[in-house]
Amino acid sequence: MFTEEIKNQLKKEFEKLIEPVVLVLHKNSSKLSSEVEEFLREIASLSDKIQLSVKKEVECLDYPCINIRTQERDYGINFLGKPDGGEFQPFIKTITMVSTNEYDLTERTVEFIEEIDRPVDIKIFVTKSCGWCPPTMLKIFSFALVSEHISATAIDCYAFPEMAVKYNVAAVPKVVINDKVEFVGVKDENDILGHIFGALS
Known about the structure:
- This protein is α/β, with parallel strands linked by helices.
- It has one domain (4-200): Glutaredoxin (3-Layer(aba) Sandwich), CATH 3.40.30.80.
- It is 38% helix and 21% strand.
- The protein has seven helices and eight strands.
- The protein has an eight-stranded mixed beta sheet with strand order 2-1-3-4-6-5-7-8, with helices on one face.
- Helix 3 runs parallel beside helix 5.
- The radius of gyration is 16 Å and the shape is globular.
- The N and C termini lie far apart (46 Å).
């Protein structure tokens, strides 16, 4: 599936991994699920610190769903669909973030996030050709990495058109928080934080 050049690049990236990462796949009998499983098996084969686990118990919105976690903790970071095209690099970066527990947030933002004590569900609607989707995904996944109360799911609009219609996705990235507050486009972390607290008010 991957060229030798890409495999070598991924192996180099995965040298940064510290904690073992588990890619938990929630799948059904669809062709897309089979493609995602093959995709993840190839990624897992490139590092002894990446494990693929296929389970039915994962809580997610639909199939196929990938949960990116460590062996000790589920951060509530999910990807709905097949993370290729423009979604590939942020998916790989998320694996590294989860393994190293490194995120791109200011100390002030982290302090505010740590005050959150109620569930926050964030949906990030993306497409493979969207240039602004990767930074939005990574920023919001960082929020989920910091707080046990925040879960974040990136959703491929083309793989799940009914969901995109349900949430009136006309442009991406579109972010929906607790099915209450939404915004479109790239926002800085202060804006995202404001929207999260707005959804909790």
